[in-house]
C-alpha cells in the first residue's frame, strides 16, 4: 500500500515504478518515477539525500543510473518503494510529487546503438506468405538464429513525437518513382534497454541477460513498406525504417516484471550452444494496438520464438561490445490469429483486406492517423501492471 493519493489499485501502483525523464514549467530534464498519476522527482529526492545513487539520478537521461548495475538498480527501487509506502516519509517526499498532467515527458535514454530483431514466428511466417506466396514461409536460417539488423539510434524518438510521412523511392510498373510513402505501417514491438556495457571482443552469455538489461520499453518501428520492398535486397532494411522509431516514455525495470516471466516457446530444431538459455523464458506482456481510437489488435508477446536473452547472446557472439543505452527491439509481435498481429501489413493482408475504422476504411496509415500501443503484464498477487504507452500521429510529408 502506498500513501500516494489514488495510486493503490492503479496499473502504475507501487509494484510498477517505471522510470522516465520529464520537464515541468520549461525547466531542465529530470529523472522521475511514475506512481499513479504522479511523477516522483528523483533528482529532487537524490538532492535531498532521500535516495542515493552516486548522483546518477541528477542527470538529464537514465544512462548513468543504468550503468550502475543490478545491485544498485534493486537497492534504489527498494528505497523508492519504502519512501512511497512508509507514512514516516510522506512529509519529506510528498512535495516532490508532480502531477503527470503537468509535465512533458522526454526521451528517457540517450540511445547508443539500436538493433531490431524479427523474432515472432507468426509475423515472419505471415510476411513470408504475403511477399513470397507459394514458397516456404520461413527462410532456411530463421530457426537457427534470431534474425536482426542495425537501425538508426539517432531517430529513436519518445512517444508523442509527430511522425512525418517519409519520402523515398518505390517500385512502380513504369519503374521507380520518388514520393511520399503510400504504404506507411506500424510494427508493435517490445524493446530492451542495456544498462551495463561489455568489452569489445567478449561475448555476453544468455544467462547474463539480467546483469546487462535494465528494463523494457514499448516500441513502434514505423515502416514504409513500399520504400522497404524496393530497397531491402540484398542488405536489408534501410530508409524504409530509419525515419522514426518511437519508444514509450517509461522504462519498466526488469524487477517490476518478475511475475511476467513465463516458459518461452519450444524450439525445434534445438538451438546451438550459445543460444541455449536455461531457463528458457519469455515475457507474458499483452500488447494492444489502437488505430484512431479503435482497438484493432492484441499481440501476445509470450508467443515470441526467440527470447530477449537469446537475442542478447546473439547480438554479442561475434564480440560486438554493448554500450549503456543500447536498445534492441524484439521485432513485430504477432500471435497466431488475425486479431493478434503487430502490423497493418498483416492486419490487411498486404493491403488486400481493408479494415473498417468507424465510418472510414484503411489499409495503411493516412495523414492525421494516430496509433497507440499499450501493454499490461502480470504483477504480484493477481494484479496487473501497465507498460508506458507509445503513441504517434502521422504528419504529411514535407
Ligand atoms: Mn521492426
TrEMBL record:
Residues that hold Mg(2+) according to the record: 221, 241, 245
Residues bound to substrate: 118, 132, 228, 232, 332
Enzyme class: hydrolase
Active site: 123
Keyword Magnesium found: yes
EC identifiers of the protein: 3.7.1.2
Family annotation (InterPro entries): Fumarylacetoacetase, Fumarylacetoacetase-like_C, Fumarylacetoacetase_C_sf, Fumarylacetoacetase_N, Fumarylacetoacetase_N_sf
Limits of the Fumarylacetoacetase N-terminal domain: 16-108
Residues that bind Ca(2+): 116, 187, 189, 221
Keywords, ordered alphabetically: Calcium, Hydrolase, Magnesium, Metal-binding, Phenylalanine catabolism, Tyrosine catabolism
The protein's required cofactors: Mg(2+); Ca(2+)
GO biological process, one term: L-phenylalanine catabolic process
Pathway per the UniProt entry: Amino-acid degradation; L-phenylalanine degradation; acetoacetate and fumarate from L-phenylalanine: step 6/6
Keyword Calcium annotated: yes
Domain Fumarylacetoacetase-like C-terminal: 115-376
MF terms in GO: fumarylacetoacetase activity; metal ion binding
NCBIfam families linked to this entry: fum_ac_acetase
Stated name of the protein: fumarylacetoacetase
Gene giving rise to this polypeptide: fahA
